[in-house]
Amino acid sequence: MTLDIGRSFTYMFEDENWIMKIVIGGILLFIPIVNFxxxxxxxxxxxxxxxxxxxxxxxxxxxxxxFMKGLMLVIIGLVYTIPIWLVxxxxxxxxxxxxxxxxxxxxxxVALLGTCASCLYLIWIxxxxxxxPAAMIRYAVTGEIMSAFQIGELFxxxxxxxxxxxxxxxxxxVAGFIGEFGVIACFIGLLFTMMxxxxxxxxxxxxxxxxxxxxA
Length: 216
Hints:
The chain has 216 residues and is mainly alpha-helical. The protein has one domain. It has eight helices and no strands. The radius of gyration is 20 Å and the shape is globular. The N and C termini lie close together (11 Å).
């Protein structure tokens, strides 16, 4: 089964209230903390897409519920990046030691440890980049935060839907790039193209989930 990529880029315009929904999201997106509501809105869109709704844009209601869903996803992301921050701290410490090292042997050891830490840093960034979309799908569909940390199930989901999953990650990257490119149309353009990008990502990830059920 393949994804309907084109529809992910255009479906939101079929909603009769799409302008207002994107305007509201675009405004909220750039208000610190409050923008967690937009993340929650994206998760609701993802689930509705996974459920097969033709035009899955939710209404802008239940702001508290959307805020909590968005906050939980942010927490999930932070937990996954803890190892990255720990390794970064180790790297900063090693750089400080290297700066004051008087022994060539010590400096060489520090350099070797720094290289190993850098490799671990890069590897974990790649792991997070691969796993987070699956974690997002799981949390959006189940509503249970712990489902985003069931690593075995996440990798099983990725393996079972590898082709669609890779395509979805690429589409998410393209949408994010186009969204940020809105800065050319000044700040207002960026405001709303980023909201559009969130909706593209939600829809394509929802399709991955829906297709996974179709072939199960």
